[in-house]
Amino acid sequence: MLQKTVFRFVPALLFVGMVPSAFATDPYDKVAVSANEKLVKLFGAGGYRGAESYGTGIIVSPQGHILTAAAPFLDGRELRLHLPDGRKYQFKVKLIEKEFDAAILEIVQAKKELIPLELPFFDVAESVKNAKAEPGTWVMAMSNMYKVAERDEMMSVQRAMVTSVGKLSARRGQFEIPFHGDVLYLDTVTNNPGAAGGAVINRKGELLGMIGKEFRNNQTDTWVNYAMPLSTKAEVILKTGKKTFTLAEFVELAVQDKWVKSERPPDSDLKEPRVFTGITFVPKVVERTPPYVEEVEPGSPAYKAGLKPDDLVIYLDGEPVYSTDIFKDLLRRYQPGDKVQIEIRRGDNLTAMTLELAPLPKR
Amino acid sequence: MLRYTLPALLLIGSIAYAQDVNDATEKAMKDAATRVAPCIARIETSGGAEAIWGAGRKGPEVMFRRGVGASTGLVVDPNGFIITSSFNFIGKPTDIFVTVPGKPRAVAKVIGNDPTRMLTMLKIEQTGLPMPVPFPKKDVEVGMWSIALGRTLTPDLTTSPSINGGIVSATNRVWGKAIQSDAKISPVNYGGPLVTIDGRVMGIIVPISPTSEGETSGFEWYDVGIGFAVPLEDVMRVVPKLKEGTADKPVVLKAGLLGITFREADQYTMGCTIDTIAPLTPADKIGLKVGDNIVEAEGKPVLNQAQLLHLLRPKYEGENISIKVKRGDKIEEYKAITLSAQQANIDPGFLGVLLMRDDPELGAEIRVVFPNSAAERANLEAGDRIMKVGLRVAGGPPKVDPKLPMPKGIPPAGARAFSGRDQFMEIMQNFRAGNAITLEVTKKDGKSATVEAVLGQFPDEIPTELPKISSKGKALVAPKPLTGPGVPVPPKKEEPKKEEPKNEEKKEDKEKEKPKTGLLKQENVGTAQRKFWVLVPDTYDPNVAHGLIVWLHPAGRDGRDADDMAKIWDVFCERHNFIMVGPTAGTQTGWVAGEADAVMDDVRWVRTRYTIDPKRVIAHGQGVGGQMAFYLGANKREVIRGVVPVGAVLANNPKDPIANQRVEFLVIAGAKDPIAKEIAEGPKKLTEKKFKALYREMEQSGKEYVNDDLKVFSDMVRWMDSLDKQ
Asked: What angle do the packed helices B2-11 and A2-24 form, to 10 degrees?
């Protein structure tokens, strides 16, 4: 018994002895300090129903361009920031892009002290090439959550792990989700008030992505902690048509004044789908009415695809359809002429079929 | 030794080593996820309810919305058997689909449930599925890596499952049923595996709670650093049983019980003294006795209930336990007692009488004889006085079904004397439906008679008429001591309810002289500054014990409905001797379970000032208040005798009945209430558990209060008045 105890103590002592030096020299500290040099604390005037009036930003150019989340306080006045060394500056919003839920800011210098800033910055173009994140990757999240840090104080550093890479939700519902592309789900409570716009870096200090806004997931009904990776993509609607960009490309173009804002009609204009399938579902009797087909209109897209009454729709373009409401919700994303794949249950068999969506019939 | 030095050695020296350890651990975690990934299934559902009554983040029993997303399961048999968390199906989805990585999506059926561990078994028509490698339960240690894997966040099964890293926080949690981990555990990975860093499966992730048995319990702890997993070893042990189920007849595993309750107030108080033994349970069959003190179980000494429960709670129906009890000075040993799911077929016996209350004299006078009851068949009549009651001496007529065993642990057959209704009910609670009893009666005309009756079941009908006089008006007089022949009633446990007033009365002598009546609105009572109202009929007489109706208002009606309720109830409270108390919920959205104790404080406030009949304390509520009434009925059984929820769904599976804590239910719904069907399910579940539960529907009503339907309302009032029927 005694012997066992001793054995247990010896390594424990070794641990205690080693741990301080191990941690002191652990790259975490060095990496965090270096990343902190490239982050700013943002402050606004406040007064936005429930939303905080402060945030975090990532410096993306030596001249003082800053990437952050499209937070409501950016619409207000009295915008100012604290550089890592404690200097205070005013800033203006260069542009807000809804498709990325992101904003690019610019530091405003008083005329008389107009000297180049030469700030340390994250090279986004370089980072997106090198830094990769997958489920299980250990990361650090750095932000001024709850505005704990003031002036020259360091950002809060959190250890986190990438839990998963995926979309927040496919639904453009009443409760708008902040971003529609792939995000990095994190296993630590990173998305706190004021954290949005903060940086997620890997253990080498390379920028992986930007911490998103606070968001409650409607799929699991839990709060989600996530960041938008630099490689994530968004579809932008231009006059010339749709085009897909990465977050890194957005940052580069925006800093160079070359970004053209997306012209997606606001979702409030899209209460009803603009397309026609020809499916009549069973009447909505309960909150989550399963999407069983009641009727298929002859000649309609669903009819042509071979859909029949009593079929249960389970998937629409890879997105699960849990109820008739969700089906309707998902359809709002499409335009006439789009092809969608739906998966149905007929008896105990599952079948996939393609529908070419038609314009809404005039009534 | 090796185990400890290796990591220590790795830490020695340079930065490079520290980095290597981190890199190596990160890589090992990813590899672990990859190794288990092929056995982790994604589960999707269609239809079912989105809004669930049950546990919430602020406390159990508030409403939360179940997410509509996918969930996770684990293959436990290559032939298409997937185990998952029951939480994923609380919305009662109409269709379930399961996708195992690399296989086509398949229609799944629920074929088994294990409510003791919150697990559900699904079956899909696929074979050759990959199996996980289990990690031995005995090797799970606090501090080792535990990685929670899920398939919820992305539909792409070619990618890694979601990974949440953490360590084992505790073993043997929730009465030995679960491993605790600090990995982020939430609906994102409920049903998924908790794995070691080398990719072996420790357990199945479930929300589970040490304190409550509902299907949503434990959810309130999501993402707070407390999560649980049922050891895979334990799961594999019951897989063969769960596999026997079918979609039409799912297997339900039940906890193994002895059938006893304890006398000690608290699980950690010294001692395991048997307080009650339910008839026909293992404890009853092997001959345990009330008063026995359990001192050893499974060869280990037990000092309190908690220590016993750690050994008993993990067991299923059909499994064995060995115990030693101290009876007097002797130690009795019982080896391999086969546990059963409690109270398979026990209906309490019903004679069919309502007795006059507040009568300290010997015997008790009949107020009402129920139609078609044993009492009616024995020609008992209102006005007759029952003097003695007991189990019929064997041998004599009438014939009893020989298959029905006689209850054990009760005094020998033969009529016993008693004084008043309460003592009568105490004797009667030992008998069950089918038992033959003997009654010595003094008939109305003064003649004595001995009658026999075979007890029936508690009735579904509510008496259509009740005589107004229900009390002998001597509530404050102590029952007459029993003398003479007949087995004396064992010394009664103190009725705390009747003791309480005395203490308070001393303090408030003046108040006591003339108790206040009418609608009394109380504010800032006690340290919690409680606000409630009390309705006392003007005819109140302290010598007549009054029933107490605890009104639990619907959401947003906090206390403001006092005047409305008083207007509706005033005349009935007077006619049927009821006092009403209306506690107030803390929030606009309604009641949370944590408020149960505050409600009980309000009840106590009334009891210390007025004479309350403990046999007729009723939790009555509407909407969320009805939920709260159900909750009180389940969790405050030492007080609540009747539950009348209006427009409320029974959220959780009911607990088992307790022999000496009778509680009855009258569930009311409006036929036009969209959730009427769900409400009607409640009484069925309760009946299955052998509770007496009636259901009444207001034909023309939706979500209105019961006064919308006078027929149902008067039924309800008479049901309340006849709650002490026997």
From this structure: 20
Q: What is the rounded CA–CA span in Å between residue B650 and residue B695?
A: 12
Residue B44 and residue B23 share a domain: no
> Across the strands, what pairs with B452?
B438
pLDDT in tens, A48-61: 555 688 999 999 99
> How many other CB atoms are there within 10 angstroms of residue B56's CB atom?
19
B230 and B99: one domain?
yes
CA-nearest of A312, A295, A293 to A351 is A312
CA distance B226 to chain A (A): 13
Using 50 as the pLDDT threshold, list the residues of chain B that sit under it.
1-14, 50-66, 212, 214-216, 395-412, 484-508, 510-511
**Domain boundaries, position B302:** 260-338
Pair B248, B265 in one domain: no
- Are residues B111 and B211 located together in one domain of the fold? yes
A162 vs A324, which has greater pLDDT?
Answer: A162
Contact call for A323 and B67, based on CB within 8 A: no
Residues of A in contact with B152 (CB under 8 A): 219-220
Q: What is the pLDDT of residues A272-304, one digit of tens each?
A: 778 899 999 887 766 567 888 999 999 999 999
Nearest CA among A103, A97, A107 for reference residue A73: A103
| A and B: number of Cβ contacts within 8 A | 173
Kindly state whether residues B60 and B205 are assigned to the same domain. yes
CA distance B149 to B201: 10
Distance CA(B615)–CA(B609), nearest Å, equals 17
Determine the residue of chain B that is closest to A286 in CA distance: B49
Looking at domain A272-359, what is its CATH homologous superfamily?
PDZ domain (2.30.42.10)
**Which CATH topology does A1-265 take?**
Thrombin, subunit H (2.40.10)
Residue of chain A minimizing CA distance to B68: A219
Q: pLDDT digit string (tens) for B597-652?
A: 889 999 999 999 999 999 999 999 998 899 889 989 987 888 999 999 999 888 77
In a domain, B713, yes or no: yes
CB atoms within 10 A of CB B366: 21
What pLDDT is attached to residue A182? 93
Which residues in chain A have their CB less than 8 angstroms from residue B158's CB? none
Domain boundaries, chain A: 1-265, 272-359
Condensed to tens digits (0 to 9), the pLDDT of residues A121-170 reads 999 999 999 888 999 999 999 999 999 998 899 999 999 999 999 888 64
Select from B9, B26, B184, B649 the residue whose CB has the most chain A CBs within 10 Å, as the one to mutate to test that interface.
Answer: B184
pLDDT in the model for residue B46: 77
From CA B630, how far away is CA B645, in angstroms rounded? 7
Measure A275 CA to nearest chain B CA, in Å. 23
Residue pair A56/A155 in contact by the 8 Å Cβ criterion? yes
Buried b / exposed e over A15-37, threshold 16 CB at 10 Å, is eeebeeebeebbbbeebbeebbe
Q: What is the ipTM of this complex?
A: 0.76
Mean pLDDT of chain A, nearest integer: 84
Same domain, B87 and B172: yes
Which tokens go with A313? 């729709």
CA–CA min distance A74, chain B (Å): 31
CB contact under 8 A, A187 and B4: no
Q: Do A318 and B163 touch (CB under 8 A)?
A: no
Query: What gap in Å lies between CA A339 and CA A42, rounded to an integer?
Result: 44
Does one domain contain both B423 and B531? no
- Identify which of B18, B107, B150 has the shortest CB distance to residue A26: B18
Nearest by CB: A220 against B1, B183, B187? B187
Structure tokens at B35: 């190794």
Which residue in chain B has the smallest CA separation from A284? B47
Contacts of A161 in chain B (CB under 8 A): 29, 163-165
- Regarding whether B391 and B371 lie in a shared domain, the answer is yes
CA distance B188 to chain A (A): 6
